Amino acid sequence: MRNSTGSLGITMRLDDFELKPIPDAESSDEKEVFAFFGLASFNAQCAEKSLVNFTMAYKLIDQSSLTQEQWLELYEHLNSQTFGRLLNQIKTKVQLPDELVEHLNLSLQKRNCLAHDFFYDHAVLMSDESGRKKVIKKLQKLIKLFQITDLAVESLSLKVWKKFGITEEWIEEEMRKQYQEYNSSINT
Questions:
Q1: What is the full DSSP assignment across 93-130?
Q2: Which band of pLDDT confidence, cut at 50, 70 and 90, is reported for residue 37?
Q3: What's the pTM value of the predicted model, to 2 decimals?
């Protein structure tokens, strides 16, 4: 893939991201297809939430003096929007690298197919093991697509959040604290 530079002044190669391992198919039975569908759906939702966070960060640049209540209201509003609406908002405000725009458009299309038409479109293939193997391979490709989307948008978000003093280390520390609080609450 070629390098692209957008208005954030970054060069991005979408094939440079370190992805989580995608499991191999074992039995190709229906339960395994559903498990891969679940993993693809999980990764699509992660990509969508990354887009929410990126949109939120970019909106805060324009409205940095929000109260906590206004901040939460804005976040909830963005969180209720679809992937497509979020993507359109970002494309009107930010000049993204061409390669990323193409990838995001493809992710939107594939996410919508996954959410609305996947099993209908693949019903015939679900009838035998050979067909289910093909379905699993398609789902594995979607998992990879959505992982790349998530990581690419997350890396852009970090660039914007740094303007507010929020670094990757700060986010990791906050996540660690929340995880400890969660563990404490379930162990009491």
A1: H----HHHHHHHHHHHHHHHHHHHTHHHHTTGGGGSHH
A2: very high
A3: 0.84
